[in-house]
Design brief:
It contains 29 helices and 22 strands. It is an alpha/beta fold. It folds into three domains: about 270 residues, 2-enoyl-CoA Hydratase, Chain A, domain 1 (Alpha-Beta Complex); about 190 residues, Rossmann fold (3-Layer(aba) Sandwich); about 150 residues, Orthogonal Bundle (N-(1-d-carboxylethyl)-l-norvaline Dehydrogenase, domain 2), CATH 1.10.1040. The strands form five sheets. It has an eight-stranded mixed β-sheet. A six-stranded mixed β-sheet has the order 1-2-4-7-9-12, with helices on both faces. The chain has a four-stranded mixed β-sheet with strand order 5-8-10-11. The longest helix is centred in the C-terminal third of the chain and has 21 residues. The protein starts with 5 loop residues before the first strand and ends with a helix. The structure holds 1,4-dihydronicotinamide adenine dinucleotide (NAI). 1,4-dihydronicotinamide adenine dinucleotide binds next to helix 14 and helix 17.
Length: about 675
C-alpha cells in the first residue's frame, strides 16, 4: 500500500526501512496524519514480521522535529487532549512491543515527539555531526513529554540526567546523549546505516541502569531528590506561572515504581497542562517567534563583508556576533585601544559559545579584523554604525563615508533614539539608511528592531530584515519614532518603578512586585544594570513626545555618579556583579505596585498599536516578549489585555489615574481594542 508520508523499503536481509518524508512540509513532524499512517503500517508489518524495522528520515534537515504544534491550538478540552495523547501512546507502545527489533537512525534534529518515538524503539543510533541533536524540549511549551518520553527517558538515562534534560528542555549533542545512555551508538554519517543494521542483526543487550540511578529511583530516595529538583526549578520558574516542571517531578516521584501506571498518569498530567493558559500562551509565543522569523527572507540579501564603525559596548559586540555567525567583519574605531578591547571581548564571546571547539573559536577570530583606518568601508556590503549617540557626530561620519561606499551597500545605524529622517538629511542617497537596533547584551538578546525611516528604500528594508535572519536574530520591522517599540514601552514602566522608590518604597519590593507578575528581572535591578545615565538619556528623549516625567531621584543619582552596576552603586550596591538586597524589606500591598507598573506598560503598548509603530498586535506582542522578556506565559501585552478583559483593565487605569495622576490616562485606543 502507498502512503503519503511514509515509504517502506525492504532489503535482502529482511530489514524494513521505514522512511519518513512528511508531505507538503519542509520538516518532519508527527502530525495526526503521519501517526495514523504509522499505525496502519505497524498493523501491516505485524502480519508479516520483518527481522527488524529502522526508522529513517528522508528530509535532509533532520529526523523528526516533534509533534505538530499547530494541532495543539485546536485542543480546547481535557478530553480532546487525552484522546490526542492516548493515540500517540498507543502507537509508541505498539513500537515498543513489536516482536522484532526496532532502531531509530537519527541524523539532524530529533526532538520532542520524535525523540519519544526513538525512545520507544529497541535501539537508537545517532550521527556524530554538528547538526544532529536530540532533546525533549516540551517544557518550553508549558507541557512535558506526553508520548511516553518522560518514563522511557528515565528508564534509559536514569532520573537525574533524564529529568535534567526534560526540565531544562535543552538540546543534547551526540556525545552527551551517548554518555547519558539516551542513544546506543554514535557514528559518523557514512557508518550510520551499517550501525543500524548491526543492531537489528546482533541485538546487543542494552546497557542497564547503573546502581546509582537505581538508588535514585528508589521509592524512599525519590522524595528527597524531588524536593531538591523543585527548589532548583523554583529559582527560574515559579509554580503559579509554570506548572509543568512541578507536575513532571511529581509524576516521577509518585509513579516511578510502576512504569505502566506512570505512562497512564503522564497522559493525565499533560492533558491538564495542554489546556492550561500557560501552555496555550507559550505555544502562542512559539508561533510569534516563527512569525518574526518570516519577517526576513534570507534570499533577499547575500552580504559577504560587514563593516562596523564604533568598537564600544555595542559596536564591539555587534562585530563579534557577526563574525561568530560566519561573516567577514572589519571593525573600526577612532581609538585603537577600543579595538583591543573589542578583540578581547570577542574572544571571550567565542569561547563561551564554542567551548572546547578551538577550531571554531580560531576561525571566528580570523574573520574579525580590527581596522583603525576604515579600509573595510569600500568593500562592505553593509556598514553598521554604532558610534556616540550624537546627531552631529553621526552625520559627520556619514558624510565622510558615503562617497567611499560600494554601490548598493547599506548604511545601518544602531541609534536608540535619533529619528532616521534627521540622520538621513546629510546623505546623497537617504534611501540607503536603515536602523538595525540591537539590544544589550548583543549575544543574549534575540530581537533586533529593523527601523524604517520615512526615506528608507523598500529594498533596503527587506535586505536589513534578511540580515537579521542571517545573523540568527529575530527581526522586527518598526517605524522610526522615538524609542521605537521596545524602549518606548519599557520606559514608562521603569520610570513608574523609580517613582515608587522615590516615594520611599524599598527597591526590593518594587522588583518583587514585577517578578510576581512574571517579569524576568525587576525594573530597578534592570535600570541599575543598563546604567542610570543611559536610562536618563532615553527617558529624556522620550519625554519630549510623551507624558513622561523624569523622576527627581534618577536625576540626582546620575549627578552623583551613582550609575548602577557599572559604578558599583545605583539603587542597589553592587558587589561582584550582583546587587545587594535587603532581605527584610516589606510592603503591604504588592499588587498595587504591580498594577502601577504593568498598567503603564500595557497602556504604552496600546499607544504603539494606535500609532502603528509596529504593524500588527501580534508583532507588538512578539517584539515586547523577545525585546523585554515580558512574562512569556502571558502571551504578550496585547494578548494579556484581551485575556483579562479590556473593560476591566481600562477601569483599573481610570482608578490609577484618579489616585496617581494623568500619566495613567487610558490611551484612546482602548475603546477600539474593546470592539476587536
Ligand atoms: P560607546 O560609547 O560604548 O561606544 C561608541 C564608540 O564609538 C567609542 O568607542 C568611540 O571611540 C567610537 N566612535 C565615536 N565616534 C567615532 C567615529 N567618528 N569614528 C569611529 N569611531 C567613533 O557607545 P555604545 O553604548 O556602544 O552606543 C553606540 C550606539 O549604539 C549609540 O548610537 C547608542 O544609542 C546605541 N545603542 C546603545 C545601547 C546600549 O545599551 N549601550 C543599546 C542599543 C543601542
Amino acid at each position: 500500500m502507498a502512503y503519503q508520508n511514509w515509504m517502506i523499503e525492504k532489503d535482502d536481509d529482511d530489514i524494513c526501512w521505514l522512511h519518513l518524508d512528511v508531505a507538503d512540509s519542509s520538516t518532519n513532524v508527527l502530525s495526526s496524519a503521519v501517526l495514523d499512517e504509522l499505525n496502519q503500517i505497524l498493523n501491516e508489518l505485524a502480519q508479516s514480521l520483518p527481522k527488524g524495522i529502522v526508522f529513517v528520515s528522508d528530509k535532509n534537515n533532520g529526523f523528526i522535529a516533534g509533534a505538530d504544534i499547530n494541532e495543539f491550538t485546536h485542543i480546547t478540552t481535557e478530553q480532546q487532549a487525552t484522546d490526542f495523547l492516548q493515540r500517540g501512546h498507543d502507537i509508541m507502545n505498539k513500537i515498543e512491543s513489536l516482536p522484532c527489533v526496532s532502531v531509530a537512525m537519527i541524523k539532524g534534529f530529533c526532538l520532542g515527539g520524535g525523540m519519544e518515538l526513538a525512545l520507544a524503539c529497541s535501539y537508537r543510533v545517532m550521527c556524530d555531526d554538528k547538526s544532529t541533536r536530540v532533546g525533549l524540549p516540551e517544557i518550553k511549551l508549558g507541557i512535558h513529554p506526553g508520548y511516553g518520553g518522560s518514563v522511557r527517558s528515565i528508564l534509559k538515562a536514569g532520573p537525574v540526567a533524564a529529568m535534567n534534560a526534560m526540565l531544562t528542555g535543552r538540546m543534547l549533542t551526540g556525545r552527551v546523549a551517548k554518555s547519558m545512555n539516551l542513544v546506543d551508538d554514535l557514528v559518523p554519517e557514512r557508518q550510520l546505516k551499517r550501525a543500524a543494521r548491526y543492531f537489528v542483526i546482533n541485538k546487543p543487550i542494552p546497557r542497564p541502569l547503573g546502581i546509582k540511578d537505581k538508588i535514585m529511583n528508589h521509592r524512599l530516595v525519590r522524595p528527597l531528590i524531588a524536593n531538591q529538583m523543585r527548589k532548583t526549578v523554583a529559582k527560574k520558574a515559579p509554580q503559579q506561572h509554570y506548572p509543568a516542571p512541578y507536575q513532571l517531578i511529581s509524576l516521577w516521584q509518585k509513579h516511578m515504581d510502576n512504569p505502566r501506571r506512570m505512562l497512564e498518569k503522564e497522559i493525565e498530567s499533560v492533558a491538564s497542562l495542554v489546556t492550561n493558559p500557560t501552555a496555550q500562551n507559550l505555544v502562542r509565543v512559539f508561533f510569534l517567534m516563527e512569525n518574526l522569523k518570516t519577517q526576513g527572507r534570507k534570499k533577499d540579501f547575500d552580504p559577504r563583508h560587514i563593516h562596523v564603525i564604533g568598537g564600544g559596548v555595542m559596536g564591539g559586540d555587534i562585530a563579534a556576533w557577526c563574525a561568530l555567525r560566519g561573516f567577514n567583519v572589519t571593525v573600526q574605531d577612532q581609538k585603537p585601544e577600543m579595538l583591543a578591547g573589542t578583540m578581547q571581548r570577542s574572544l571571550t564571546m567565542f569561547q563561551k559559545k564554542f567551548k572546547k571547539d578551538k577550531r571554531s573559536i580560531r576561525e571566528s577570530m580570523d574573520r574579525l579584523v580590527p581596522d583603525t583606518k576604515g579600509v573595510g568601508i569600500k568593500q562592505a556590503d553593509l556598514i553598521i554604525e554604532a558610534i556616540f549617540e550624537d546627531k552631529n557626530v553621526k552625520q559627520t561620519l556619514y558624510k565622510s563615508i558615503e562617497p567611499q561606499m560600494k554601490e548598493g551597500a547599506i548604511l545601518a545605524t544602531n541609534t536608540s533614539s535619533i529619528p532616521l529622517e534627521e540622520l538621513a538629511t546629510c546623505l546623497k542617497d537617504p534611501g540607503r539608511l536603515v536602523g538595525i537596533h540591537f539590544f544589550n547584551p548583543v549575544a543574549l538578546m534575540p530581537l533586533v528592531e529593523i527601523v524604517r525611516g520615512e526615506n528608507t528604500d523598500e529594498k533596503i528594508m527587506n535586505q536589513a530584515l534578511a540580515f537579521g535572519r542571517h545573523i540568527d536574530k529575530l527581526p522586527l520591522p518598526v517605524k522610526s519614532s522615538p524609542g521605537f517599540l521596545v524602549n518606548r514601552i519599557l520606559m514608562p514602566y521603569l520610570l513608574e518603578a523609580v517613582e515608587m522608590v522615590g516615594e520611599g518604597i524599598a527597591p526590593e519590593m518594587v522588583d518583587k512586585a514585577a517578578l510576581n507578575f512574571g517579569m524576568p528581572m525587576g525594573p530597578i535591578e534592570l535600570a541599575d544594570t543598563v546604567g542610570l545615565d543611559v536610562c536618563r538619556s532615553v527617558a529624556t528623549i522620550l519625554s519630549k513626545d510623551q507624558n513622561l516625567n523624569l523622576p527627581k531621584r534618577m536625576e540626582s543619582m546620575v549627578e552623583h555618579k551613582k550609575l548602577g552596576k557599572k559604578s558599583g552603586e545605583g539603587f542597589y550596591k553592587w558587589v561582584k556583579g550582583k546587587p545587594v538586597k535587603d532581605k527584610n524589606a516589606s510592603y503591604a500591598n504588592l499588587k498595587e505596585l504591580e498594577d502601577r507598573m504593568i498598567m503603564r506598560f500595557l497602556n504604552e503598548a496600546a499607544a504603539c498599536l494606535r500609532e502603528k509603530v509596529v504593524a500588527t498586535e501580534d508583532l507588538i506582542d512578539a517584539g515586547v516578549i523577545f525585546g523585554t522578556g515580558f512574562a512569556p506565559f502571558r502571551g504578550g501585552p496585547l494578548h494579556y489585555i484581551h485575556a483579562q478583559g479590556v473593560a476591566t483593565l481600562s477601569n483599573r487605569l481610570d482608578e490609577l489615574n484618579k489616585l496617581y495622576g494623568t500619566r495613567f490616562k487610558a490611551n484612546e485606543v482602548w475603546d477600539s481594542l474593546g470592539s476587536g
